[in-house]
Write a structure and sequence with these properties.
By secondary structure, this protein is of the alpha+beta class. The protein folds into 3 domains: about 1-35; about 40-85, SH3 type barrels, CATH 2.30.30; about 90-139. The chain contains 3 helices and 5 strands. A hairpin with a 4-residue loop joins strand 1 (about 45) and strand 2.
Length: about 140
């Protein structure tokens, strides 16, 4: 009778360990499938958060990643966390649109025309406020 609660606790612990082990095995299998399915041109993210394009898959333990055009590095396959999607080919169009808008802003980035009468009024107002502050300090 005294052993029944202990047996139940041991049974629950074993059941919990079994489920945790299954989950871990499933995650390892998914990671292995990902690393084996990588092909040249795939866009990936590494475990350190670096985005790159796969450039070489000839080795079984390492993989070549192209960080930017002409910059290639070699990484362990285990460093690849996930595929993030295909590389965007329309980067130039997006940059051209942004550049056009920036150019328009630069052309229109001239100071506004100065109204001489408005400046005189502003100077008078500023002088009045300065005089009020000085008079309040002297009191």
């Amino acid at each position: 009778m005294d052993f029944l609660p202990i047996l139940i606790l041991i049974g629950l612990m074993m059941l919990m360990m079994m489920f945790m082990g299954r989950k871990q095995k499933r995650q390892q299998a998914q990671q292995a499938d990902l690393q084996n399915s990588l092909e040249i041109g795939d866009r990936v993210m590494t475990t350190s958060g670096l985005y790159a394009t796969v450039s070489d898959v000839s080795d079984t333990t390492t993989i070549g990643l192209e960080l930017s055009p002409g910059v290639e590095t070699e990484w362990l396959r285990g460093a690849v966390r996930e595929k993030v999607g295909p590389e965007i080919e329309d980067d130039e169009e997006i940059e051209d649109d942004a550049t056009d808008e920036a150019d328009e802003e630069l052309v229109n980035n001239e100071p506004p025309p100065v109204d001489d009468d408005a400046d005189v009024d502003d100077e008078d107002t500023a002088k009045d406020k300065t005089a009020e502050v000085e008079s309040s300090k002297s009191k």
